[in-house]
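To: structure desk
From: M.T.
Subject: fold request, one chain
Message: Could you run this one when you get a chance? Sequence is below, nothing fancy, just the single chain.
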Amino acid sequence: MSRSGVYLQRSNDGTSGYVGSAYSVGGILSRWLKHLNSNGDAKHLNLYVLENGHNNLIFTVLEFTNDNDALQTESRWKQTLGTKNTGPYDGIRLNKN
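Reply: Done. Structure tokens follow.
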């Protein structure tokens, strides 16, 4: 888990999802721990956690990548899973960008 890659945080019922990537030191494990402590700039994910709590999220590794491919792979997964939402928070599509 200390490798670079792309992950999914989804609701227990599978209706809400957030795709993220992790690269450089610490990899996915480091990023997951950061999400547990503070979601940073993941605004829609932050709102979801405030409404539903961390216990309603399942964390899954979608794919391991190298550092250089992580962001491109993340974009592909966002499109594939339909998690991107450039509008107002809707509680379902949790990726703002």
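Reply (cont.): The mean pLDDT is 90. Let me know if you need anything else for the meeting.
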